[in-house]
């Protein structure tokens, strides 16, 4: 059985189809709004074929963010179980059960991985090997760091309880900072989306209330002006996404 690689995300046929249909409809509407030409709008609608690529990146980012958050919760449970005197193997099983109570989602990636680790231990595979395999597939810095520290501590006979407690505290603090930044950026993201939507809303308003006034924009030099404006909006969208993509 091939285990999940968390550095890639594959859209289902349904997801891909929905992305193309919705994306094509949006681009068609934008094309008609800016040009009032059915042929140009149809040509622009083919840009909807690119939407699955961007949605794929978005879903991969969401999946990895969720795994990082759930890993933080699992570490707290693991630390508590070890401090209570449970064995390492039982502590991982307990962490999976605790996550099930916190996140009643049968498709949760981390719960699945904890079950895989427990199953590997039942078949006699050392826990550090199971953790290293998970960290390679996840390719998330916090998980990799924990797996490396855990492996070194297990092999050298270090204080596993203190190491796990300290590691969970550090990773938890880092994720807390990331969440605070995300909350702070949420308002700016909303404002940027509102600014990007404003030109489209303005065009709709003008077409509904002063259609004769807008007629020159849909012929001759007006179409050139519309094209330049649409390209500038595209550049603004790209720049905003770059600026808002804050990484720690």
TrEMBL record:
Topological type in the membrane: Multi-pass membrane protein
A Pfam entry, by short name: T2SSF
Domain (Type II secretion system protein GspF): residue spans on this chain: 75-206
Record's keyword annotation contains Transmembrane: yes
Membrane as UniProt keyword: yes
Superkingdom per UniProt: Bacteria
Transmembrane intervals: 16-32, 38-55, 194-211, 217-240
Protein location: Cell membrane
UniProt-listed InterPro entries: T2SS_GspF_dom (IPR018076)
Keywords: Cell membrane, Membrane, Transmembrane, Transmembrane helix
Name of the protein: Tight adherence protein B
Organism: Paenibacillus sediminis
